[in-house]
Amino acid sequence: MGLMSRVSISRLGFLLFIAITAPFCASATDVNSVRLGVHSDKTRFVMEMSEKPSYNIFFLPNPYRIVIDMQEVNWKASTLGGKGKGVIQAYRYGLFRKGTSRVVLDLNAPVKILRKVILPPSGGKPYRFFIDVQKTTKKIFAEAVKNTRRKQIASVPTIVLMVPEPKTGRKLRVVIDAGHGGIDPGATGRSGVYEKKLTLAVARKLSTILSANPRFKTILTRSDDTFLSLRERVNVARRNKSDLFISIHADSIGRSDIRGSTVYTLSENASDDEAAALAKANNKSDVIAGVDLEAQDDTVQGILIDLAQRETMNFSVKFAKLLIPEIAQSGMKVGGKSHRFAGFRVLKAPDVPSVLVELGYLSNHQDEKILKSSSGQMKLANSIAEAVEKYFKLIAP
Ligand SMILES: [Zn+2]
């Protein structure tokens, strides 16, 4: 990658590339309707909106997607997306980050954009934003991906981070990561509640509890309903030179009788099929939200990371082992295989001990009840806080 030549590595500096999309101002744009139309030669995506869109469109491969970023809008439609038509298999929309709303179109074939049209208000209709797409060859699609990627990489600032110095007399920093958010709702509960809402509620409570102890400083990766890529979550942990990273999730599966918490630490070899499937599902967050994984760098740092990561993983396991009995005391069920291993991308900070906790199953009635109630959330947050205190007593007395 040509990127390497533009940056220097000092000491064991790790490189992080943070993609920043064009700065849009928050606005009062309403999107009143989103729909698809199929014509003989094209599929049309239409948004009706109260203000003129200021947009940026790009393509993503594996799977084929079109991403439309625009100013932050208020979605007036009740769902987060819809069923597809024509070459558009499905679509979804939501907040991508402050100031930027995003639409992701999942495609069932490579396509090209025939035209993009913004019609000004007329005849009682607001602004109408049309995008017409048509099936094309893999080659033409790949060209379009390359072109948009080139433009994006040109606008990516490079940040060089150092391996943290040994901490001296400062507060212990705990990064609390509420899973999913914004355009990515996560799992859906039996009652229709979104995982992203529950993870944020527990994360906030945990932050409040820990902050009351003067030994700790907490940092939330997100404090509202915003999307963050997995890489950005890891970056929050690393940028803050944090001492512990806790990613909070809730699972959902096809069987309603399965319940209980599971704590995960990083491993390339998943401990079982279920763990592997779950990691795959959670790693999909970036796919759902239309993050360009290949424009981010994963390989450059490979060897350096390997060394640091092995040491870090031992600490992650220590914390996981303390966390499980605490959760069991909170009243949430903890099963036999309560500590598992899998390749979650969000656990890949090489220098920050990290765990991912699936608090319970939203597909189970009792678990969902606990997770939805403020008292249940509080008990879970307390149990995590208890484990955090025990962990630091153990490793930094
Ligand atoms: Zn999740």
Give the tags.
397 residues; alpha/beta; Immunoglobulin-like; 2 domains; 5-stranded mixed β-sheet; 8 helices; 18 strands; elongated; disordered N terminus; binds zinc ion
What is the average of the pLDDT values?
A: 83
What Rg is obtained from the alpha carbons, in whole angstroms?
Answer: 22 Å
Number of domains: 2
Low-confidence stretches at least 5 residues in length (pLDDT < 50)? 1-26, 155-166, 296-304
- For the report, how would you describe the main beta sheet? 6 strands, mixed
SS strand fraction:
25-35%
Q: What share of residues is helical?
A: 25-40%
State the CATH class of the largest domain: Alpha Beta
Biggest sheet, spatial arrangement of strands: 14-13-15-18-16-17
What's the architecture of the largest domain, going by CATH?
3-Layer(aba) Sandwich
Give me the secondary-structure category: alpha/beta
- As for the CATH topology of the largest domain, it is Aminopeptidase
Give the strand tally: 18
Give the count of helical stretches.
Answer: 8
**End-to-end gap:** 44 Å
Overall geometry comes to elongated
Which kinds of small molecule does this entry bind, naming each only once?
zinc ion
How are helices and strands ordered from N to C? EEEEEEEEEEEHEEHEHEEHHHEEHH
